[in-house]
Structure formats: structure tokens, C-alpha cells
Design brief:
Elements: E1 2-10, E2 19-28, H1 37-40, E3 45-46, E4 56-57, H2 61-64, H3 72-82, E5 88-89, H4 90-95, H5 103-106, E6 116-117, H6 123-140, E7 143-152, H7 154-164, H8 168-185, E8 191-196, H9 205-211, E9 216-222, E10 227-232, E11 238-243, H10 251-276, H11 291-305
Parallel strand pairs: 1-8, 3-4, 8-11
Antiparallel strand pairs: 1-2, 2-7, 5-6, 9-10, 10-11
Helix pairs in contact: 3-6, 3-10, 7-8, 8-9
Amino acid sequence: MAWIIGIDEAGYGPNLGPFVMTSVECQVPDESVGSNLWSLLSRAVRPSCVPADDRLLIDDSKVLFSQTKGLSGLERGVHATLGCVGQLRFHQWLADRCADGSQELVAEPWYEGDSSIPAAAGLEQVLELNARFSDACTEAGISGFRARCVVLCAPRFNSLTQSGGSKGAVLAHALAVLLKKAEAETSSGPAHFFVDKHGGRNTYAAFIQHALPDGVVVARLESMERSVYRVHGFDRCVEMTFQPRADAEHFCVALASMVSKYIRELCMAEFNRFWTGRIPGLRPTAGYPGDAARFWAAIQPTVKKMGLSEACVWRSR
């Protein structure tokens, strides 16, 4: 059995709210490593290029979520694939998935984690979809779907950006945390990582070497289309592929995109609830440039009254 691990992020561009990077892993028969998981699991899931039906839509989060569509599509996909044990509080669900702990998030004044999830999708429907997905996995010999995430709020985001000299340091840090965790906890069987490319970067050997210092990273290919690496020194094959729009080709990357966006949107709901509850008439924000400036100007006086610095709320890059 081999491991497939997909990694993607949400919230890299905004000035407000957290950045989230997620890895999603599953275990597949060796002969299925190069297979299309949408096809293997077609009894239960479909990508957006297939006509809509009653199966789960698993795709890039931008396909499933918008402010008008709401959370329901994301929520169905996330909980039905990763397992739904019933109604939970957000903090309970998230604590089990934070690869480096949730202490920094808990320290945020706006975060309570008391939202009930599933929040927008019906629990009964999610449980039915989960049962259908589990049956499809059993038929295909696929198991072990699990997600891990890194959630970085403004203080840590700004600190990493400042010390690293660019926002790329944020991506490198989160990726290192997830790679280390996945390598440690998927210790038997080949591991194949697929990562959505970070902007225009084509070289990732230094990122990987920093994350896995016990291995020796060898670049097999570095190009605009994809960058492929083999990590030697472990008792198994460890390969990593970075490519643009990886979510369109790899099921686990698409699901990682969905989980990252789901976590960020639940956090933004709490972020907005906190500030709009203190400033009458304030409209919520998604945190992206443009509208973020409007929101930041409105909350600045309250931020100062609370004794918070700008770097505690506003992401400088």
C-alpha cells in the first residue's frame, strides 16, 4: 500500500484573517498510485467537469465556495470524505487536525471556536454521503483519509514574513510543518506528495531539505509545468511533485484546497462576528485587499482601545 498526500492552501492573499495550509492523505494499493481517484471513487464523487448529479463534488474550493453559494458545498465534501461523527464544536474538530497545535489561534481575541458544525449542510445528509463515500473507498481498496492543517494568524504571519524577507517564508514554514508530520505518521509504504505550486516558483529542494533534514533531496525535474523530487535516506520511496493547478489533477490536493478554505471561512465568520459586535453598522469582510482597508479603518480605534498592535490584526503583505 502506498500513501498519496495532497497539499494546498487558502488565505495567502488577504490582509485580514488567517492563512491556512492543509495536507490530505489516503492509502491506496500500489497499482493505483498513478490512477485518477475521482474515477476509482466515481460511485460517490465527481469533479466539476462532470455534469451535476447526487454525488459529492470534490474540486478546487473556488468551484464550490463563494459568498453567494455559502459553505454547504464545502462542508458536505469535507465532512463526508474525512468522516463525520456527529454535531461538534469547531474547536473540537480543528484541534484534532492542527499539525502544530492550535494555541496561536486560541490566543486570538476574536476566536472562540464555538460554532456548531456541520453549520450549513444537514447532518443527516452528510452522514449519508459519508456512508456512500466509505463504501466506494472499500470497493477501491482505499483507506485512511485524514487531514492536517497549519493555521497562521496575523502575528505569526507578519513575524515569518519579516524574518524571511518575503511572504514566501509563510509558505515554506507551513509546508515544512506538514511534510514533517506526514513523513512521521505515514511511516510504512511509499509516499507520493502532490503540492499546488507556490506562485511562479520552480525550485523547492531547499524547502524540502529544511523540512526533512534526515533525507537527501534530489531534483529529478524543475520546470514551469512541474518540479519533481526524490528524497533519499528513508526506508521507503518518498517523492514530491509541485505543479500549477494540482487540484485539477489530484483528488487529495482538491480536497486539501476545500479543507483549507472551509477552515478559513469558519474563522472569518468568528472574526467578523467579533468586530461587528463591537462596532455598530460595520459590514463583514472577506479580508482581501480593497475591502480589507475599509474594514481595517473602521476597527482601528477599537484595536487601539484593546491595546493591540497593528501587527496583531493587519497582515502587512
